[in-house]
Amino acid sequence: MAVASAVLEASHGHLREALAGSPRALDALRMLIEAPIDDPSGTRRGCLMANSAGELGNADPEVLAHAHRTYETSTALIGDCVARAQREGDLPAEADPVALARALPAAQQGLVLMSRTGMDTATLTATARSLAARLLPTPTDD
């Protein structure tokens, strides 16, 4: 579990940098959804914690607890980015940052699953863009 903790802490550091380093928060959120399609070989698709929780979560309370903490940390980081996109005027003010921060990784993991079925990159890309259009709507001009 110590090795997994170190890997996941590094992963959160990368996520933090990617979300904060993008000139526009909305671009960072779209990147998050599209991340699974950026690996045409399919060798990097997946998430250590999602895979561990899926395989061991019900059988190992320590894995389940660690997965929950990891998910909550990711949710907080993504939620901060959603709030930034709202401040930048790229997402509707009434959008719930926490709800959206939970939906985006769920969409991303769905794309990971689709990629593991051998789905071609063009279909994955179209699906990711469709998800982004629905999950990350632009504010309406009144």
Describe, in plain words, how this protein is organized in 3D.
The chain is mainly α and 142 residues long. Helices cover 71% and strands 0% of the residues. The chain is built from six helices and no strands. Helix 1 (2-21) packs across helix 2 (25-34), helix 2 (25-34) packs parallel to helix 5 (97-116) and helix 4 packs across helix 5 (97-116). The longest helix is centred in the middle third of the chain and has 27 residues, at 61-87. The termini are far apart.
What radius of gyration results from the CA coordinates? 16 Å
Q: Catalogue the unreliable spans.
A: none
What's the overall average pLDDT, rounded? Answer: 81
Instruction: Give, in order, the helices and strands.
Output: HHHHHH
Compute the number of helices.
Answer: 6
Helical amount:
over 70%
Largest sheet report: none
Task: Determine the strand fraction and express it as a percent band.
Answer: under 5%
Shape: globular
Strand element count: 0
